[in-house]
Amino acid sequence: MKYLFAFLLMLVLPGPASAQKLINETDGGYKLVWADEFNTDGAPDPKNWKFEKGFVRNHEHQWYQAQNAWCKNGLLIFEVRKEHFVNPVANPQDTSWKSRRPFVEYTSSSINTRGLQSWQYGRFVMRGKIDVDAGLWPAFWTLGVSGRWPANGEIDIMEYYRGKILANIACGTDKAYKAQWFSNTKALTAFTDPDWAKKFHTWRMDWDETAIGLFIDDELLNRVPLDQLVNKDGSNVNPFKQPQYILLNLALGGDNGGDPSATVFPKRFEVDYVRVYQK
């Protein structure tokens, strides 16, 4: 059935370039085990994806809601918009950053496969196009299914903000909610193509029992052996020896995204496909 699935995908993909990319992604003995090609117009497939809602993490500017992500013409589209309405969770008696904001000023979407799809080891691939204007923070990443962050393990296969592409891996430390980061970046100015941000690119993770490697367009950005990723809390737990689930989102501002005030909205993050392969 796996071979049949891969063959059928090659038949429906738009053009020879996508078919060739499918062939390349199976190099090294990998076989397709799961994919979402986003070929059905409308909301993302609920068998694969759940939406996050509200203000979620990193003091980000956007309110997440389902209306800002949809499938059209073979693409999954995330759109961040400048809006203004009363914060539904505003509470002047609550000191949390989520409740202190009287208004929502921006909206976007975040989806994930938690509780629906997860995998231990494999090749995870996303082909997408990101906008690189100020304040934008698109991401394709994974989290471990068990444990409290960051002891559950985080892998940022694609992350962009403030003029750089990031490839990050995080495990836990002896302090709650404090991660040990293994990170590498590549500045947009390092790409020789002046139209780089106007084109689709392929981000990939190769994860096995020995290491995690993160790539963009087959260029290795970061590789960390698994034996360096044991949580430093005395538990001797390696969070990357458990299944991980996938997240896709378009964030704005917050702790890392930068100032979006000069950016003209709406802005988009477009995804052609997400695929998972295993040996």
UniProtKB/TrEMBL annotation:
Gene Ontology molecular function terms on file: hydrolase activity, hydrolyzing O-glycosyl compounds
Key words of the record: Hydrolase, Signal
SUPFAM superfamilies: Concanavalin A-like lectins/glucanases
Domain GH16: 36-279
One Gene Ontology term from the biological process aspect of the record: carbohydrate metabolic process
Record carries keyword Signal: yes
Signal peptide: 1-19
The UniProt record lists the keyword Ligase: no
UniProt xrefs under Gene3D superfamilies: 2.60.120.200
Cited PANTHER family: GLYCOSIDE HYDROLASE FAMILY 16 PROTEIN (PTHR10963:SF55), GLYCOSYL HYDROLASE-RELATED (PTHR10963)
Family stated for the protein in its record: Belongs to the glycosyl hydrolase 16 family.
Protein name: Family 16 glycosylhydrolase
Organism field: Hufsiella ginkgonis
